[in-house]
Design goal:
Elements (H helix, E strand, L loop, with lengths): L3 H13 L1 H17 L4 E5 L2 E5 L3 E7 L4 E5 L20 E5 L3 H5 L2 H12 L3
Antiparallel strand pairs: 1-2, 2-3, 3-4, 4-5
Length: 119
């Protein structure tokens, strides 16, 4: 379900950074393939996805898109793609659509979603 704030942020991104817009859209599609009934809202300048609880956020920057996991410390990282050295948060940096599969994004989103359902 897309609300007006999500639509507004997508339009702004499409105008200001069309390349990042395309990557954000590809990431959003991947998330919705895994969690079709996810809710999405704009927070912290990006797109936050929730089921029972928030499970990831998607943020567009000038040169990349970051998929953030608030409890990324709880995720197994068999492919060594999680970045971040904080106590809880981890992220995956994407620079192209090929990174979605190359960095196994769907596997990490699925794990984050399943972990969030236990909260």
């Amino acid at each position: 379900m897309t609300d007006v704030n999500v639509s507004r942020l997508l339009q702004e991104l499409q105008i200001t950074n069309p390349e990042r817009y395309e990557l954000v859209q590809a990431v959003r599609q991947a998330i919705y393939r895994l969690v079709p009934d996810a809710s999405e809202r704009v927070m912290y300048g990006g797109f936050m996805f929730s089921g029972v609880a928030q499970f990831c956020g998607v943020f567009a920057y000038r040169e990349h898109v970051s998929v953030e996991f608030g409890r990324g410390c709880d995720l197994d990282d068999p492919h060594g793609v999680l970045e971040g050295g904080g106590k809880l948060r981890r992220h995956i940096r994407l620079v192209s659509a090929a990174d979605i599969t190359g960095k196994f994004l769907e596997q990490y989103v699925d794990a984050a979603y399943r972990n969030s359902q236990c909260k």
